[in-house]
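pinging the channel bc i need a second pair of eyes. not urgent but kinda urgent?? the chain im working w is below, pasted from the shared doc
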Amino acid sequence: MKKPNEKQKLTLSFLQKMEEEDREFTDKELANASSYPLGASLRAKLNRNEFGEFILKQANGLYKAQHTLGISLNEYALKVSSKYRHANPVSHSTGTSPSKPSDQLTDKSIQAALAAIEIYNKPDFKYREETFSILLINAWESLLKARILQNELEHIEVLYIKDNKNPGGFILSRSGNYRTISIGDAINKVELDPTLKANLFILVELRDNAIHFRNDSPVLNTKLLEIGTASLHSYLEMCKDWFKRDLSKYNFFIMPMSFFHAHEVKSYSVNSESIQTQNLLRYIGNKEKEHPHDPLSAHSISLRLETKFVKSKMLIDPNDPDAISITVDEEDAFKKTFIWECRKDLLPRLSNRYSDFKQTPEFWNLLRQLKKNPKFCRVRYLNTKTKTGVKQEFYNPNIVQELDKHYTKRQ
């Protein structure tokens, strides 16, 4: 990288002063401060965004400085260099801030995740498991890099691979663009739940196996579905946690609907698989053992989807031709949703989950308030029809999400 010149030094000093004072300025003031000629030269530079992200034109025709405080002269010179700007174009819209690189990567990530789901849900797509893993890893890589940019104040050079032979420089690709860090480096740069981290590295292995060789094992494809399902569940959580993106408007569902799967044959033997597939399955099995499923955690190594055909509970009421009645087995729904008893299940889990949990009067008052919410607690009577006789309270595990606001989770 070339050494910063005197005009760049003067420009940065002026922009930092303007940003610190939160002042707008004219192109004439910029010309006087930077020594750039005011005529066509400076105006052309402004029109071509040659000052990168650091100068933003306002609706009134004036300019404002941004992102200049705290950066070095070398960093400024790098970001206004033609090579850097061509690799990282900044599009300004009058009167508004430019779209942040992290937002752009997040948008790209979501589209990749949606594409992964769409491909997997195609009825008879021969390469769907492999394509699903490739696109899902692409989604995660973009999301992780967006998180890194978010943590590093949108300084995009943190994603570039440093050139040890050229201090201050970065490694270029065959086309001359800056090379960015790998998915593995991105995983290690972001603080992640250990289970999520293990899930992602398994997904990377499956992706690599699909790209560089093949994944043609029915057992492996089943495991990929389970791992991908868990990974998508985590993806939704991290989009919401990191970027406040609510993806509920999208149909994030994968649908392995089928009347027959080859892997459901009872006599199927894993020993008949290739050595490569056995190694992958062994690797996955070890990770599942290291990170057993925790129903209170937002992350899992794998989640199994059970598909079975049951009698429909949506029935047309012959006495009301204008309506459709939905019959719900209340007892069955209760057993599947409210599964914790207080002394046996809830209290021991809270002790294990929180470092500062104690059964104080404050806790019991809090629990008394939460029990009023039917989403968290329900009463079950011995006689479920008349709702009389002995009764007992049962809790939904989602109650811990509210308790998380009052106690400190163990590391």
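so The first helix runs from residue 6 to 21. and DSSP finds 15 helices and six strands in the chain. — does that match what u expected or am i reading it wrong
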